[in-house]
Amino acid sequence: MIPVPGFEGRRVAVFGLGRSGLTAARALKAGGALPVLWDDSVSSRMQAQAEGFDVEDLTSADWSGFAALVLSPGAPLTHPEPHWTVGKAKAAGVEIVGDIELFARAIAALPEGERPAVIAITGTNGKSTTTALIGWVLKQAGCKVAVGGNIGIGVLALPPPTEVDFYVLEVSSYQLDLTKTFTPRAAILTNISPDHLERHGGMEGYVAAKRRIFQDPQTAPYLGVDEPETEAIWRALVAEGRAVDPVSVNRPMTNDLGMYLLDGWLAYNAGGQPAKIVDLSQARSLAGRHNAQNAALAFLAITDLGIPEETVAPALLSFPGLAHRMEHVATLGRIRFINDSKATNADAARQALSSYERSFWIAGGRAKAGGIDDLEDLFPRVVEAFLIGEAAGAFAARLGDTPHRTCGDMASAVKAAAEAAAATGRDEVVLLSPAAASFDQYPDFEARGEAFRAAVLALGAVPASAS
Questions:
Q1: Which of 32, 93, 208, 218 sits CB 3.0–4.6 Å from 8 for a disulfide?
Q2: What is the pLDDT of residues 28-59, one digit of tens each?
Q3: What is the rounded radius of gyration, in angstroms, for the C-alpha atoms of the chain?
Q4: What is the DSSP letter of 93?
Q5: Cβ of 261: how many Cβ atoms within 10 Å?
């Protein structure tokens, strides 16, 4: 745990008692604050009381006595409309923060020589893989590393600074909206595509939230520049006089900053000449152009922090990957089964579909705005689509002449896709990349991915770890 100083002896309201809320309350209490907790869920309030916390109905509390409101990232700050706690806090002049901001203040309170380096990663897609990849490489380099934030362990539940050389944090747009003094040593923005727009009042607000990761001029910025939004951020940072390392997997970089993809290698320019650095064809779990971008961003950030290239390159290639993100789960005969359940929007599914010349595609769930409209150029790569969930009808209509069938549930889709793939008599890929949220049939994308895994193994497929 990381104790949070600065609120000693003062009451701090904490709303939302999920993973980040309870962890923040514990860290505040360890730092000497008097946290006052509330949640709409009775069971969450009972758990807080069982831990000895002061649980008080914040709808009728005296807000003038609070030093701050720690707001769950799941509660809206501005859109579609501010959470009721936000209104009460603003009316009382109480500052509103999140767990990442509390972490930032805890690190800033340390003597400068005792502060671990912080690497922060955000983006619409790829942030979890990039976060885990950086953590993996640093561990292979012998560093003491803590990985968490929006992935895995809540940030304030990570080991204290005395036990850490590097904190590697995935940070969501919701969390960034609640930061003021967050100053990572290095900050990465993987990409931006439309997502969570209702929480940010549209694309402009969403981009602004992501841009906050670079809010402090002391932070070294790294970003993918293959979308108009991220290219605009890059050019704005350069105009401010910031030294920026851009990454593109669609075009060469024309100066000695940044990295790009060249004949399947990560490359940069050295003295104006291309230099091939990492052969990604040798990587265990970094298939696809999107993973090339993730690897390039990780390489630049880590080497700039002083880890030698000759250590970073082989560590990138040995990265085992993350579950539910282009994960090779099993093989059955000549069929590989790929679990990309984390692809909850069309842009994420694009990365997976682009990685294979042919696939038997399992898609569907609860559709997001635009559905699969933006994937039409990739339909020729789909041998056949197998549709599940609420979006099956709409996806079927959009697929048009592309072979497809409605299967309804995961087990039926996996069985049908495996049979169709086996009938070709050639090497094939059955790809779960839903391009939709999971909430129509599953509590989260992890549960959906595990349902895919179970259905695949039920066919007698050999797990990838055993093959």
A1: 32
A2: 999 999 999 999 999 999 999 999 999 999 99
A3: 23
A4: T
A5: 20
pLDDT tens by residue, 208-259: 999 999 999 999 999 999 999 999 999 999 999 999 999 999 998 877 788 9
pTM of the model as a whole: 0.84
- Residue 190: name the closest of 132, 235, 246 by CA: 246
Cβ proximity of 311 and 141 under 8 Å: yes
Cβ contacts of 206 within 8 Å, gap of 6 or more: 173, 192, 194, 195, 196, 197, 199, 200
Taking the C-alpha atoms of residue 5 and residue 57, their distance in angstroms, rounded to an integer, is: 25
Cα end-to-end distance, the chain, whole Å: 39
Sign of torsion, CA 404 409 412 417? positive
Structure tokens that stand for 264 in this block: 């399947």
Rounded to whole angstroms, how far apart are CA atoms 59 and 395? 43
Largest CA distance in the chain: 72
Residues 431, 327 contacting (CB under 8 angstroms): no
Sequence-ordered list of residues with C-beta below 8 angstroms from that of 449, at least 6 positions apart, any chain = 323, 324, 327, 339, 341, 342, 432
Structure tokens at 118: 């912080």
Is there a contact between 9 and 142 (Cβ–Cβ < 8 Å)? Answer: no
- The residues, any chain, with a CB within 8 Å of residue 333's CB and separated by 6 or more, are 422
Tell me which amino acid residue 118 is: V
Are 32 and 7 a contacting pair, CB within 8 Å? Answer: yes
- Distance between CA atoms of residues 130 and 72, nearest Å: 24
Distances (CA, A) of 432 to 278, 417, 448: 28, 10, 10
What are the residues whose beta carbons fall under 8 Å from the beta carbon of 380, sequence distance 6 or more?
Answer: 402
Nearest alpha-carbon partner for 35 in 43, 17, 360, 165: 17
